Amino acid sequence: MRGRWLASGRSGPGAAWAFGCGVLGCLTAAVVIAVGVWRGCFSELGLAFLLLAGLALVVGPQSRWPPAPSSSGGVPGASDDRAGTGGMDLTATFLFAILLGWGAPAALAVHLAAGVLPELPRRVPLRRVLVRVGCRALGLAAAGVVVAGFGLHQDLGTAQLPAVALAALVLLVVDDLLDPPAGATRSRSRSGAGLGAASGSRVAGSAGAARRLLVADLHRRVAAGAALLSLAPLIVIAAGRGPWLALLLLPALRVVARVGEGIRQKEFEARHDGLTGLPNRAALAERAAAGFAAAERTGTRVGLLLLDLDRFKEVNDRLGHEVGDRLLVVAATRLTAALRPGDVVARLGGDEFAVLLPALPPGAEGRTVAGEVAGRVRGVVRAPYEIDGQSCDVDVSVGVALYPDHGSDLPSLSRCADIAMYAAKEHRLGIQTYGPRDASRARLRARTTAELGYALDHGQLELHYQPQAEIADGRVCRAEALLRWRHPSRGLLLPGVFVPLAESAGLIRPITSWAIDAALAQTARWHAAGIPVRVALNVSPRDLRDPRFVGSVASALAANDLPAATLTFEVTERALTPDGEGPAGALRDLAELGVTVSLDDFGTGLVSLDALRSLPISEIKLDRTVIGRTGTVAREAAFVRAMVRLASDLGLRVVAEGVETSAEWRRLAGFGADAAQGWHVAPAMPAGLLTPWLAPAAVPVPVITARPTSGV
Asked: So what's the pLDDT on residue 698?
């Protein structure tokens, strides 16, 4: 119990200052209350005081505004121990009224009770209670000096209004200077513990942007606090006429408090992610200026980490968006806990996060510290997740960029971190710090993406076809259409070079449509020549999510006068979701149309047996990585044999891809596989080369036992 109440969480200069002020405030309150007892201030308080004290204890805590935004972003388990009162509330209004009417000892006594008692059931750490209570106590004590100096009492009149206003101003100023959330904001604005620079602003304007942010925040806090404190004299006057008259002001007080609460809540939501509570892009932009300005002034560095969760889309597709959202919340909590004091994590959207590392040491040491934080962050995020009894595994790619080495503002620094993150993802490095080589690769990717649209419009894309043969008799039953890009200067490019770029650039749908039209047109020509070969193509989950996709396939089949059974679509395991509105719904529609659906790369991921049973899968394709080890690893051979038997029991056809030797062919025949594809049959080749290869035998075609030299 004691350890929990004394838990302090995050530390640092700001936390130490807040704790010191809290202790000083509590000691001050104790001394003032003791003096008040000695002087008999509590002997004749009366019913009006008891009523206001009760309202402060009961009504005030129920109307507290949301805590001011902190670097933790409100993620569970990541709250900042410097979180304080979060500004004025109804409790402050009643306390100020007691201060005006009955003096500082009575106000501080009620404040201690109102600050401590509501926290007892919540088991709030004692350190946090001391900070919250002590900082406000100093403000009340300072305002009490003004009240005592001017001799204010319950019989307030017009002549006392300047003194009342001065006391309220003192309370507001001291409270704002010592209130931890406000202090955190000021600290970020001064020392750069915020998130980079505002979008589009240069370092020269960073200080001005920080000052504008500070002034706007101060104006909001003072205006809202003044509105609440201005009601305190009315409460005192009403209570002086009759204790119960003060209750008539309660509805008005609640309205004022609710309006302020709504304003602050909207401001909080505008700057924080609704799912995780972390700062969002707007907060990233607002907090940006201070970090770069402080680094420029002190000669330090600022680090920016961009994180992208790998395989998160698979979790969403396999387990649903609700599980995916909960995984993001857990990941956000882990991220926050892994950071240094003063570091800030923000959610940029989807499965992307940003981490700002202010005040890094100059030189190589700063790069080292950034790398250590990136490694720690990656380690906690990629640890296994258990969500509602479901086991989830994701990885994370981290790109690191440093100010001023890689950029002088947030946009340029973000671009460099994004380039580094893409390099980490592409080369499976996990973490990558931006470098000149990454920039050249990024330029190449950007140029390739720009050229891809031109290639689609000007006939540079083409299809190569790789035959599939029946293992029982060697007959060629189908040809898989494989996409190629005949680049004018870089030669023949394979799909791995440009398909990911097409997906990110939104070109995958038109490319898939072109491939379907081209493959079906070629199949129709083969059928006209007496070669009744079927055709298979790969489609992505993004294609299947398009509500127009199934209709376009039906139109393409009709345009080429081909039966739907001629066409097979190969899909990856990401498409096997139970969501009827997504890819699975399109798969069912395709099956009703008569199109065959094949599960590609089987054996390399996690497939639900229920999905195999319930979704319209007609066949599975065993991946090359599984086939290649069947001759040397007994467990792999047993695995393939079991998969073939399972598929047979489910009524599924089994195709093995990547078959390169006659020994592999014979083993697959022994396992009971139905068909094979690979160099042992034939390589992928253009239709112009495949047609004469098929035509003499007009299918069946004997299996090629040596690799042809033609094709790619």
From this structure: 41
DSSP of 157-209, one letter per residue? -GGGHHHHHHHHHHHHHHHHHH-HHHHHHHHHHHH--S-S--TT--GGGHHHH
299-434 and 461-694 share one CATH topology? no
CA atoms of 67 and 265, how far apart (whole Å): 9
* Domain boundaries, given as residue ranges, for the chain: 18-270, 299-434, 461-694
Kindly report the three-state secondary structure assignment for every residue of 76-122: CCCCCCCCCCCCCCHHHHHHHHHHHHHCHHHHHHHHHHHHHHHHCCC
Is the model's pTM score more than 0.70?
no
Alpha-carbon span 601 to 483, nearest angstrom: 17
For residue 663, how far is the Cα from the chain centroid? 48
Contact between residue 142 and residue 170 where contact means Cβ atoms under 8 Å apart? yes
The CATH T-level fold of domain 461-694 is TIM Barrel (3.20.20)
Report the top-level CATH class of 299-434: alpha beta
Quickly state the pLDDT bin for 189 (edges 50, 70, 90). Answer: very low
Question: CA 537 to CA 603: how far, in whole Å?
Answer: 19
The predicted pLDDT at position 41 comes to 82
Binned at pLDDT 50, 70 and 90, residue 482 comes out as very high
Predicted local confidence at residue 81, as pLDDT: 36
Residues facing 686 on adjacent strands? 464
Burial of 641 (0-12, 13-18, 19+ CB in 10 A): middle
User: Length of the chain, please?
Assistant: 712
Question: Nearest Cα to 328, choosing from 306, 361, 294, 352?
Answer: 352
**Choice between 252 and 116, residue whose per-residue pLDDT is larger:** 116
Tokens at 427, concatenated: 């080369």
